[in-house]
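Customer escalation, tier 2.

The customer says the design service returned an amino acid string that "doesn't look like it belongs to this structure." They asked us to rerun it and document both sides in this ticket. The original structure tokens are below, unchanged.
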């Protein structure tokens, strides 16, 4: 990259630290909150994510100052570990009611000098990540990046048109990832609707192909569940329909990011939208999950769910579940419903900070007729199989993006060369 100049971030962008809390306050406007986890987990924040963002409140000044707009970059500002600070994400769309939450900083580039997509990529580089780690203040339980540190970030600026071309390359990869995620969301909605018809409304096809309950199928009151269920179905516990492995963290000295050993997921911080993100490995694994197993968070937030798209080791923040009755899609939606139950209890003040092995095993469930489960599996298994393939494509695209980043930023490959191969 020719004609490069070196500046400090504060010379070409406005940097502001958010103090918007996640608590809803009486008299303030309700907004969606893009919080630390949203920034940490995503390369970009898009309009598609809107409904999954937390509902919170903010006053007029906070809304005006920290509303998210296309071209901005958000950064994690403080955390319990040095590795979790300085993680950036690009704001890809304009939002009227989404504000950036506390523990984060919002960067608004001077777009005549600095392209937001380029900045996002640049802040992801190893050089800048080492800068953040070295310049974080604090020790023990909390590390932070001051406003002075953020403003002093050294930025290498090629001409703005070159920045835009680099940003476009990463934007194109992001769009491919986004399309795949939208397809997976659509497939999940299809499977979810079928699950609701069959196992919530009990309108699975009867022997004549008609919806069971709506067509007058026999329902029986179950005293333990305090509800009616189809004749021949039973009450049970989660352990009756699922084998459950509680995670156990390996020796911390075995953790690495160079692929030595087996993939390791510590907890829900490793979760993506559906599949966990590859962050670290361990060469001293303890407890295992198989590809296709359901991974459930057993520490706050209890009940968060992903699917293992590789054999892996699981830490103490997770449990791995495998269906005993022949349908992983059925078990997946059971766990999703349990998560909703946990959230409802949280909303009325009964907070689940964690769930024990015995508590997890004994969660009440409806045990359906085996033939109904078999038919559901025959329909939904191909859907889940397709989602696994698409999930692998997303993983490969993310790996491609991460490999291209240092090559572009170090000048080892040109934008023109990349465009000829992408």
């Amino acid at each position: 990259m020719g004609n490069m100049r070196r500046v400090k971030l504060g010379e070409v962008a406005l940097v502001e630290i958010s103090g918007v809390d996640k608590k809803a306050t009486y008299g303030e406007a309700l907004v969606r909150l893009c919080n630390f986890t949203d920034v940490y987990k995503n390369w970009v924040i898009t309009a598609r994510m809107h409904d999954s963002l937390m509902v919170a409140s903010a006053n007029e000044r906070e809304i005006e100052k920290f509303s998210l707009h296309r071209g901005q970059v958000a950064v994690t500002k403080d955390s319990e570990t040095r590795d979790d600070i300085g993680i950036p994400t690009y704001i890809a769309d304009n939002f009227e009611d989404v504000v950036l939450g506390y523990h984060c900083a919002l960067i608004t580039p001077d777009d005549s000098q600095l392209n937001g997509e380029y900045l996002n990529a640049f802040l992801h580089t190893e050089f800048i990540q080492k800068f953040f780690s070295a310049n974080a203040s604090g020790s023990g339980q909390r590390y932070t990046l001051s406003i002075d540190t953020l403003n002093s970030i050294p930025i290498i600026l090629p001409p703005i048109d070159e920045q835009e071309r680099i940003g476009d390359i990463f934007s194109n990869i992001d769009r491919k990832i986004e399309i795949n995620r939208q397809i997976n969301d659509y497939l999940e909605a299809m499977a979810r609707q079928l699950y609701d018809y069959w196992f919530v409304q009990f309108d699975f096809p009867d022997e004549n192909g008609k919806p069971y309950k709506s067509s007058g199928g026999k329902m029986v009151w179950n005293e333990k569940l305090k509800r009616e269920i189809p004749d021949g179905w039973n009450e049970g516990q989660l352990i009756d329909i699922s084998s459950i492995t509680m995670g156990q963290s390996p020796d911390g000295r075995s953790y690495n990011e160079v692929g030595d050993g087996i993939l390791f997921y510590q907890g829900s911080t490793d979760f993506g939208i559906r599949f966990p993100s590859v962050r670290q490995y361990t060469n001293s694994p303890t407890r295992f999950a198989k590809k296709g197993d359901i991974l459930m968070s057993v520490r706050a937030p209890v009940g968060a769910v992903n699917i293992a798209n590789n054999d892996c080791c699981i830490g103490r923040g997770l449990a791995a579940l495998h269906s005993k009755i022949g349908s992983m899609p059925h078990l997946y939606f059971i766990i999703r419903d349990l998560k909703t139950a946990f959230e409802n209890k949280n909303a009325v003040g009964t907070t689940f900070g964690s769930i024990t092995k015995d508590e997890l095993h004994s969660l009440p469930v409806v045990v359906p007729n085996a033939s109904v489960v078999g038919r559901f599996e025959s329909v939904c298994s191909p859907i889940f199989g397709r989602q696994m393939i698409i999930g692998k494509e997303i993983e490969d695209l993310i790996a491609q993006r991460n490999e291209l980043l240092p090559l572009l930023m170090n000048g080892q490959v040109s934008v023109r060369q990349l465009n000829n191969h992408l």
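Tier 2 assessment: The sequence is consistent with the input. The chain has twelve helices and 26 strands. The two ends are 19 Å apart (CA to CA). Sent an explanation to the customer and offered a walkthrough call.
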